[in-house]
UniProtKB/TrEMBL annotation:
Its cofactor is Zn(2+). GO terms for molecular function: carboxypeptidase activity; metal ion binding. The keyword Metal-binding applies. Residues 1-19 form the signal peptide. InterPro entries: ArgE/DapE_CS, Bact_exopeptidase_dim_dom, Peptidase_M20, Peptidase_M20_dimer, Peptidase_M20A. Keywords: Carboxypeptidase, Hydrolase, Metal-binding, Protease, Signal, Zinc. Residues 205-322 form the Peptidase M20 dimerisation domain. It holds the Pfam family Peptidase_M20. PANTHER family: ACETYLORNITHINE DEACETYLASE (PTHR43808), ARGE_DAPE-RELATED DEACYLASE (PTHR43808:SF32). This is Glutamate carboxypeptidase. The lineage of its organism: Bacteria, Pseudomonadati, Pseudomonadota, Alphaproteobacteria, Sphingomonadales. Gene3D superfamilies: 3.30.70.360, Zn peptidases (3.40.630.10).
Length: 425
């Protein structure tokens, strides 16, 4: 008798509405794949503003059919296309959900990688996983809720940014609508890709920040025979590398990574206006007058970000005699720390996994997840990342999505959203 009770308690337990959702996701699988092809075949590189708007129109069509009120927020002020914002008003007094995704990809209009190619239950294409696959999962889950009758009472706001891969500047404008939505929400669900580790689906309750920096050093130029002498000093190039070496020796701590992505030095050295190309001139027998390096660092909390900035600035300030050194920090993505509230959301997702007879999802090491839009609301609302499909090779030609993973992700999302949306605030 006791064994029977234990087995009954451990058995999957879906309500009739939840069972309808799972059947709907399976029945509409090919429809979802066809929509993914439509989205992928429309280029929407961040700087292809008409392309981003076109993807936005497709998403508007799908969301309006589900009863959402949809608006487009232009972002010309930050030289980006804009954001799609969709609102579904449900029962008063129940939890409000914020769903996050993005319309753009890293593949611009001149990329040779442009088309959706299906191979069974996999497909490659620009943004097939990141994040057009995520948007398709979101829609599949919402359609399943509609079929089961659970969408009607749900309070849901969706923000699909048009510049997640290359945010407009400043973030105060580019992310104002997302931040405002986070303040209204009781839970945030991010539909970027599912993390898979050793064949197991993982839950993501944290994302690290992304912070840029540019280091510039100067020195007394002259004939190379005078290098290191008291009148001349070390020159700009040696001072740059000395400071970078101090970063390497003195900055390391848990959950922090830092990188030098670009550097140059010589009689002259400069970065282009976008900070992605460097030019330099000089000769082997001339002491460099200037050197420049650009990089990033990633942290797990805003407190860690502030601490690392302070340490980097102190190292730069202690430059060698006869040289100058300055560091400029660039606005980036904040951190999403692994809070108790985020862990509680993963517990709720794992309750869904149990009832779907799926394995439990452990929390992913945040070192294995990049920065993302949900971090802008992490200080205001509990969140969960990775509701999109599994994929590989993201951000590179050949990006490939596991189409079959869209099914289980849509089922998880539909049931989780239904359960959360029924709770009182």
């Amino acid at each position: 008798m006791i064994l029977a009770l234990l087995l009954a308690a451990a058995a999957p337990s879906l309500s009739p509405a939840e069972a309808t959702m799972t059947r709907t996701v399976d029945a509409e699988y090919e429809r979802s794949v066809a929509l993914l092809k439509e989205l992928v075949d429309q280029n929407s590189g961040t700087l292809n503003l008409p392309g981003v708007e076109a993807v936005g129109r497709t998403m508007r069509r799908e969301l309006e059919a589900l009863g959402f009120t949809v608006s487009w927020k232009p972002m010309a002020r930050v030289k980006r296309a804009g954001h799609l914002i969709a609102v579904h008003r449900g029962a008063p007094g129940t939890k409000r959900l914020l769903l996050i995704g993005h319309l753009d990809t890293v593949f611009e209009a001149d990329s040779p990688f442009q088309r959706f190619v299906r191979r069974g239950d996999e497909a490659e294409g620009p943004g097939a996983g990141d994040d057009k696959g995520g948007m398709v999962v979101m829609l599949a889950a919402l359609r399943a809720m509609q079929a089961a009758g659970t969408l009607k009472a749900a309070n849901i706001e969706i923000v699909l940014t048009g510049d997640e891969e290359d945010s407009g500047d400043p973030n105060a404008i580019a992310r104002a609508d997302l931040i405002a939505a986070g303040k209204r929400a009781d839970a945030a669900l991010d539909f970027e890709g599912l993390a898979v580790e050793d064949g197991r689906d993982m839950g993501s309750i944290a994302r690290r920040s992304s912070n840029g920096w540019t280091l510039t050093t100067t020195g007394r130029t002259g004939h190379s025979s005078g290098i290191f002498s008291a009148p001349v000093g070390d020159g700009a190039a040696f001072e740059l590398t000395r400071i970078l070496q101090r970063f390497r020796q003195e900055l390391p701590e848990p959950n922090l990574t830092f990188n030098v992505g670009l550097l140059a030095g010589g009689a002259t050295a400069a970065l282009d206006k976008d900070g992605v190309r460097a030019t330099a001139t000089g000769k082997s027998n001339i002491i460099p007058a200037t050197a420049v390096a650009r990089g990033d660092f990633r942290t797990l909390s805003e407190e860690q970000t502030a601490r690392v900035r302070t340490r980097m600035a102190a190292i730069v300030a202690a430059h060698a005699p006869g040289t100058g050194a300055t560091i400029v920090f660039e606005e980036g993505y904040p951190a999403m720390p692994p809070t108790p509230g985020n862990r509680a959301l993963l517990d709720r997702l794992n309750a869904v996994n149990r009832d779907l007879a799926l394995p439990q999802m452990a929390a992913l090491d945040p070192l294995k997840r990049g920065a993302g839009d949900i971090s802008f609301v992490a200080g205001d609302v509990d969140g969960l990342v990775g509701l999109g499909p599994s994929s590989r090779g993201d951000h590179a030609p050949g990006e490939t999505v596991d189409l079959a993973s869209m099914r289980r992700q849509a089922k998880r999302a539909a049931i989780l959203m239904t359960r959360l949306s029924r709770e009182r605030r």
